[in-house]
Specification:
Order of helices and strands: EHHEEEEEHEHEEEE
Strand content: 35-45%
Helix content: 10-25%
Number of strands: 11
Shape: globular
Structural class: alpha+beta
Low-confidence stretches: none
Radius of gyration: 18 Å
Length: 246
């Protein structure tokens, strides 16, 4: 039953940075869309979830990046679920170029939520997952990202836009990635390349939050970020990025 889903893309101008390489935000958009499309095909997608008053909420990502696709490159992205445990599902991704070389590997964790009670529900109590054949585990860990300390932190305030809201009426997860990418690339774009990105999505922001803070702390080989409410009381996302010299 649709063990994997693979789609092919050609990298467009609007998806690239000033260096002609794929933006992180666009990559997350693609991963999110393929995850949704494949969930539909295996019977656990958006429409089926609505019938059962539940929804999949992305909790974590970890990307390992060998190289970024470039403008006009033709790539394929393949995705599959590797396991269901309690209320969580683990989904893997591989991005390849047209020669079949692996550019990016990723793993993600999704939590099935009862949308009325806003509580996790056991996947097997809602869907018959016995018909879903799990695929390979890529061996990429999903480690917890701890809260950021307040020492040597840079802070930027961003206004939320209507365009940031998704079909679940929340600020889309890829928006948080775009916000940290802004702070990240302003700092490292000329000297470093990104090798790994880990994201913990902690809580969904909504348009009425109006603004968020992006807190960042840079080191020699990596940086930590937190997207939080303006008063600092709520973390919406925590991100760790590892990079190396060009």
């Amino acid at each position: 039953m649709f063990k994997t889903l693979e789609e092919k893309f050609e990298i467009k101008t609007y998806q690239c940075s000033e260096f002609g390489t794929f933006k992180l935000k666009t990559l997350f958009d693609y991963l999110q869309e393929l995850a949704s499309d494949h969930a539909d095909k295996i019977g656990v997608g958006y429409e089926e979830c609505l019938k059962k008053n539940c929804a999949w909420v992305c909790a974590k990502y970890h990307l390992v990046i060998n190289s970024f696709p470039k403008l006009k490159d033709k790539i394929s992205i393949e995705t599959w679920p590797s396991k269901f445990i309690g209320p969580t599902g683990i989904r893997e991704f591989v991005v390849k170029n047209d020669n079949g070389d692996i550019l990016i590997k990723a793993v993600s964790q999704w939590v099935l939520i009862d949308i009325k009670r806003l509580r996790p529900v056991i996947t097997q109590n809602v869907f018959d997952c016995s018909k879903i054949e799990p695929g390979e585990e890529l061996g990429i860990t999903l480690d917890k990202i701890p809260p950021m300390s307040n020492e040597d932190v840079q802070v930027v305030e961003h206004s939320l836009r209507y365009d940031d809201v998704d079909v679940n009426h929340h600020i889309n997860n890829a928006v948080y990635v775009a916000l940290i990418e802004d702070s990240l690339m302003r700092k490292i774009k000329d000297e470093y390349i990104v090798n790994e990105v880990s994201v913990d999505f902690k809580k969904s922001a909504v348009l009425s939050d109006e603004k968020v803070l992006v807190k960042s702390k840079f080191g020699e080989d990596g940086a930590d970020f937190t997207v939080s409410s303006v008063d600092g009381k709520v973390d919406f996302a925590r991100v760790n990025v590892k990079y190396t010299k060009k």
